[in-house]
User: Fold these one by one.
Assistant:
Number 1:
Amino acid sequence: MSSEVLEIQLIAIVVAVACALPGVFLVLRRMAMMSDAISHAILLGIALAFFVTADLTSPLLIIAAAATGVLTVSLVELLNRTRLIREDAAIGITFPALFSVGVILIARYAGDVHLDTDTVLLGELALAPFNRFEFFGYDFGPRSLWVMAAILCINVVFIAFCYKELKLVTFDANLAATLGFSPALIHYGLMALVSVTAVGAFDAVGSILVVALMIVPPITAYLLTNRLSRMIVLSGLIGVASAVGGYWFAHYQDASIAGSMGLMTGVFFALAFLFAPNRGIVAIARRRASQRWEFAQTMLTIHLFSHEGLPEAEREAHVNHLSSHLHWEPDFAQQVVRNAERRGFVRNRAGRLDLTHQGREMAQLALVK
Amino acid sequence: MANHSDALAIEVEDLTVAYRDQPVLWDVDLNVPVGVLMAIVGPNGAGKTTLIKVILGLVRSAAGRVSIYGQSYSAQRRLVGYVPQRGSVDWDFPTSVLDVVMMGRYGALGWIRRPGSRERKLALEALEKVGMQDLAHRQISQLSGGQQQRVFLARALVQDAQIYFMDEPFQGVDATTERAIVELLQELRAAGKTLVVVHHDLQTVVDYFDWVTLLNVRRIASGPVKDVFTEKNLRLTYGGRIAFLSRSGDEPAETQIAPHVIEPEEVENGGTGIGERPIL
């Protein structure tokens, strides 16, 4: 692997993990779409800061972007609080307004610098290694790797130190407030973090894929676990897998790296959605099916139990009557009876069904419940 | 009934809460002595939840003053435990029963410090008190309504507070759980704690509580159940929407009213949750 190939993958991995970490809390706070709003609106902050510094590498750009992100969240909340506009609409109004001002500013006044709108939307990871971080003539690797590594560190530190507070505020903001942990402080801290991450990441993958990397790995992890700590770790791992998988997919298909990474997050989500051990579609369908069989078994034992020893038992307890009496298809009835026999609940004597001791117990148990 | 000392656990003066020009609470005065088990009752939209949320600093008041043992809530928050309505949180949150109960210790831990083995031990003890020790490691989405309520109670117990505020702890729980909760409340009172419980079922007020506040935007009455929980006060609180069924029995008639509300869906504020917005 050439150093360039390695560098691109490293950047992709760092970006993906840095995005997934705050994304976990966005997803749990039902604010997934806020990442969309923030990752677009920060363009205005970047454009304004660029006019002040005339330097695309200035750290002021990141600070301005973070401020715009927090501003976006505040504006959405302000609109929402008037109760004239619901939250989804408030998001839909706020960020295109800020974003479009940013686009106009760049197109009108910064057309000749590297801040074109295509890059903003899609990013270009393949070019990242050309922008080096040099210090006293030494080459320390790609600049964006350092920027994203720093942002990743900030995210890790914030989540490690405020893990308990983030968990409490996300689960029960009222309790957090009564215990003296300001939900607003945590909330805006998280939003600032999302903004900083978005501004760092959009350089590499563009603002649209920031959303994919922030939201999709956490949702995938949510389907796979029911512990917050594991959800965070899994989100990071899925991010890494998407980054590496996306890179090689792009390599062999000669496609956009960022686009392929986004695609990979979708593939992993689809896999989890279908095959997650407890919450996946297949697991749910299998559970439903087994519940249906289980219920049919119980129904059969109860039916036999309630007619047991009565004059009509001869007729009621016959296999052929089950389909008409219990509204079962003949095939289904046969299958239920076979299962019940196999599990020792009934004895089948030439079509006449008798409960075993075990079957009688099962019926009684079900009736008591 | 126990002798109540003269000390006041909660003092509320001239408390007014409004959503724009819609009053949610109008000039409420309330004194709660130390060591009582008090129900707050009133029709839907009477401001019961809002009242405890203002006391806890979760809702801003337009006017008035609240004190806990003579000082502001923020100075005394260590003394206060809170059991919110069960439906106020997302039970699909990826966490376990034990984890939720440990959250009750977060206040004592303060910022940054992580819960450790001591918090774990306290949480397990609290779970045992509510009969949930076997479910400590269960994912919270797998709990029944009654179990969720017990988890919330355990979480309040580990706060080891002097005053407990509980918002409808009997909402949607089965009879066994209700019985268990009542016993727990009475144990806490016996241990000298003060309990304020938003309550819906008028029929059980006499059996469960020794103190009651009748609320309908204004404070209608507040005091010992035997003095205050009268037909007259209930009519003032619920208007005409109440029927009184005399319980047959050998006890004196005046304390044996078993009222129930006829039109519980009536909402005074013309909306759900109005004025109960948390400060965020």
Number 2:
Amino acid sequence: MFTRRTFDVVVVGAGVVGAACAFYTSRSGLCVAVVDRGPVAGGTTGAGEGNLLVSDKQPGPELDLALLSTRLWRELAEEFPATFEYEAKGGLVVAAQQDGLAALRTFAATQAAAGVQCEDVPHLADVEPHLAPGLAGGVRYPQDAQVQPALAAAHLLRASGARLLLGEEVIGVLRTTDGAVRGVRTPRGDLLAPAVVNAAGTWGGQVAELAGTSLPVLPRRGFVLVTEPLPRVVRHKVYAADYVADVASGSAALQTSAVVEGTAAGPVLIGASRERVGFDRSLSTEVLGKLARQAQELFPVLRGVRVMRTYHGFRPYLPDHHPAIGADGRVPGLWHACGHEGAGVGLAPATGALIADGLAGSGGRLDRRAVDVRAFRPGRFGSGPPQPGRADAGAWPSAPGPTDRPPA
Amino acid sequence: MPTSPSEEQGPYDLAVVGAGPAGLAAAVTAARLGLHVALVDAASRVGGQFYRQPAAGLHARRPEALHHSWSAFARRAAQLDVHTAAGRIRHLAEHHVWAVTGEAGQWAVHAARGPDGSGETVVVRARKVLLATGAYERQLPFPGWTLPGVVGADGAQALLKGALVLPGRRVVVAGSGPLLLAVAGSLAAAGATVPVVVEASGYGGYARRPGVLAANPGKLAEGAVHAAALVRHGIRVRNRSAVTDVHGTTRVEAVTVTRLDEEWRAVPGTGVRIPCDVLAVGHGLLPQVELATGVGCATRRTPDGAHALVVDARQRTTVPGLWSAGETGGVGGAALAFLEGELAARDIGRSGEGAASLARRRDRLRHFGEAMAAAHAPGPAWPEWLRDDTEVCRCEEVTASRVREAVNDLGARDARTVKLLTRAGMGWCQGRMCGPAVACLAGATASPDRRPLACPVALGALAELSDG
Amino acid sequence: MFRSRRSPLGLARATPGAPFDITLDGRPVPAFDGQSVAAALWADGVLSWRTTRGSGKPRGAFCAIGSCYDCLATINSRPNQRACLVPARPGDAVTTQKGHGRADLAV
């Protein structure tokens, strides 16, 4: 049966970003529907490790977004205790050599100036007993934390009270004669709303296209290794200092720098390969081998531990590695909340709060000055049907004029 | 291309994964046609689960006492010995294949060594690959199924055939499918008391397909042998019934057997308590297809809701350079597996001679297998056996109530999402035991198995794949 | 050695060598050459040799063909070996495995 249902906002995507958008938007008093062609957390969220990292971000708008998100995740964990395995375990970035350590310390100093808590760790064995001997040193980031992403998405969606429409694929974005969004179409009917939020993650480019615009979201594949269940053998999220360079790299080639961490459930997760191979789902034993080797170099104790399974996901990345958050000035009523690459779980609450703030207008509760949102303007990539004079108008009216300069 | 420090000599013309009836037949046929073959298998001796041989150290002079159609196996095992001695086949025993990667012409079969695969990993390179990885037993949870003494029917059979031991003295055999009769017969022949065989479906299903039965006189004879064994040992078969509870604190002391209606719903007030020290249970077999799905082979749903590989008349999968034979293409028994292995090898070795008649026999047996699957497909109401505290996932101890919460309250609509939200299927067995049940509880049809690592691999062994 | 036909060894006319001992928590358990650890334990009437990591309930071999991993055993101090696949060797010391069997690694 073809139905017609009316809402204030339709969020496309039931991953963790869509869930956070629905949660904060509902909180601000709007009537929200979340629609997804699959189940809850069926895309990149379900393949995520649940990293809430400030440690891997250089000073700038994304770090500000991460700091805001860190605070919001803590609030959510207090509001919904013991539902999504929130663990404020802290991150530990290590350097093998003295010169690498010096560079790490310099980097940390710039982060500290931007509000990140950083602690120099001269004796790694004191905080992480199984780390390989002989590493030069490291920096601890107490604000780094972890959640179980699928549980987080599911519980935020439930708490939002939003109408959840699963297994229903958006096949069209409905627009008025003057081009403004008025809802979406699925095979089961129309969901009418004056605002549509594109939280489709790696598939966000397709939703943008349905709305008659463009967003160059591309997949960046990552593999994760999962070990047999263990007691707590790794206390922090531990990674080598090279990881930051890999995250920021624009190269299509394979980069691996293992992030090693324990989980509440027991298994150790080893993640973070990055390669641009489209939606290739085939297993790369080269990647598995590299991740395993790096994990073993950091934690020799893992050598005899069994890897029980592996999975991959496709991070949604945009060319400048920043997400698209805010109104799309080219299509009135269309909002974007996607393209977070590997940081979507971490950045979800801040993204949702920003979107809610924008949608609810002055009713929003967020201090907008906390984050300079210009870096996340969806229109910054410049393609798609331009509408001069309208670019990004209405998203954050108080924000200074648009600039297409990518952030440093 | 990075070269593993442990590379088997090769490339081979053909790598056969699995040394059960299908793999064995394929290997010896391919070797006869002049191909250089690697036969890669997890067990220490060939035979697979069906022809599991007694361990060599037991010096069994009459292994056939525990097997049906032993001579068909023994003949090919003897041919294997000849080809192995001549260097045409290399039998890589105790090699647990955890992934197949690559493409036609240059496959890499990755295997972890050792009796339980905890050793180093090696690469076997081959131009063509035949997957003959067989099947494993389908389990459905019920109250008490995690108590020690509840064992897989196929497992009880395996330890009897391979190690010549029994799990207990008084064994109730339950579940669904023709395997139960064979298991009960063997257990009884080996000295166990089998008070009853409990079959959820009943065997009436075949009667509706008389054409299929008439076309398979060998299968009729096989059934008659099993039936005669049951009569000889005084074993009763209770149709349309299931074990719905297990009694005991640290091990099985008794089971409750309850009548089922057409949809496998327990009929209230019909429970009967039967003392026993072991319950051997199983609901037919599931094709083991994850190596194939890992490289993109298409699957099809079988009449009992399982997923089998799509193969054409020449046993080719949908991926070029990759063949399948035996249970991976749908459960059909050892005779079918022999035929398919031979057909696949003839296609690989480009020998069409006599293939038409083999193919006709193959098709007949395939139809029979499908009819059996339809007759023993789990009824839709079996989840009603579960109590809230019944563990559905044995590895991660996830109860039925937690699975239902994920479905009813948290938006799970399939087994994968239930897994993400509850950990059901995330443990050591990777959902092999709970997968069909979880999918059913999620209201979904099960998806084809995808396990990029078909079995666990030591982290240090994986690390060896990287040269730094 | 006389064996009844109504025993698995008798049925298959097996003539194994003399049994050797493995131990379960220090108690001797006889095994024949070629039998898996699980088989030897079953033959001795033992059905469980580990406890689960959540509720601490006893478990032993279930599928017995290497698929279910319920039979994980600590053998000679190495945890998480599939007892249904690992052959018993003279002197093997099986200890009841608690949970993940890796408590020694905890920090």
